[in-house]
Amino acid sequence: MLAPRLIMMIGLSFDVEPDFPPYYNTNRGLEGLKKVCEILLKHKADATFFICADFLEKNPGLLDYVKKFEIACHGFRHIDLRKLGDMQLEGEILEAVEIFEEFGLTPRGFRAPYAGVDSRVLTVLSKYFEYDSSLLFYQKKPEDADIKEVPIYTGGKTFGINPKLFNRTLDFPIENKVYFIHPWEYGGLDFKLIESKRKKMKLLGYSQENYLKNLETILKEKPVRLSEMI
Ligand SMILES: [Zn+2]
After folding, report:
1. pLDDT 10s digit of each residue in the chain, 230 long?
2. How far apart are CA 92 and CA 83, in angstroms?
């Protein structure tokens, strides 16, 4: 008898932030954001956009690109929240929430910059958000954190690898697969600068052309926004 086929759900998420943190602090990746949003609309695909609040404040026009999708929070500044003291941590999150409110937005989800959370950060987040998506799928959520978790599967630079290798990520036997993407890897930046920091990725066929091919592979799987995976 055949084993029952695993029902798989694919979540697609984008981290909207300054270019290639911490190496750069420019906003040229907005071009990549526009591009990925157009591709999503063309494929009638859904996704969640985790946006840094200070990036949003400086580039409010980006809301025109992402308005058809779920808007979530990627912190205020793109900094490691685990390194902040209690007061600073609370202030950083509150600042982000207030900026979203100014735009009439109440994000349900949060992803920490550098996906850096611990039980203290998650406890603060639980006051403001319904779910977090910062842990990796193999990480255990701290028991005292009273917030739903939609863990990350893979993404980022993985979207640049050889498509044959990338396709294998779909075969891994976990039910829910959350992919994440950085729009700045899709345009605006001189890609040579990114490649120079990722020399080892060459062994996996890493190139900018692969990003579009691998995104299209995921779009064929009918991805959902992360709030549908809670
Ligand atoms: Zn980020």
Report:
1. 555 556 689 999 999 999 999 999 899 999 999 999 999 999 999 999 999 999 999 999 999 999 999 999 999 999 999 999 999 999 999 999 999 999 999 999 999 999 999 999 999 999 999 999 999 999 999 999 999 999 999 999 999 999 999 999 999 999 899 999 999 999 999 999 899 999 999 999 999 999 999 999 999 999 999 999 99
2. 12
Ligand 1 centroid distance, CA of 149 (Å): 17
75: CA distance to ligand 1 center in Å? Answer: 9
Structure tokens at 109: 């989800």
Buried b (16+ CB within 10 A) or exposed e, 188-206: bbeeeebeeeeeebeebeb
Name the 3-class secondary structure at 122: helix
Peptide bond into 173 cis (omega under 30): no
pTM: 0.96
Helix (H) / strand (E) containing 110: strand 109-110
CA–CA distance, 99 with 106 (Å, rounded to integer): 10
Q: Give the fold, CATH level 3, of 9-229.
A: TIM Barrel (3.20.20)
Q: 19 alpha carbon to ligand 1 midpoint, in Å?
A: 9
How remote is the CA of residue 175 from the centroid of ligand 1, in Å? 25
Length of the chain: 230
Task: Sketch the domain layout of the chain as residue ranges.
Answer: 9-229
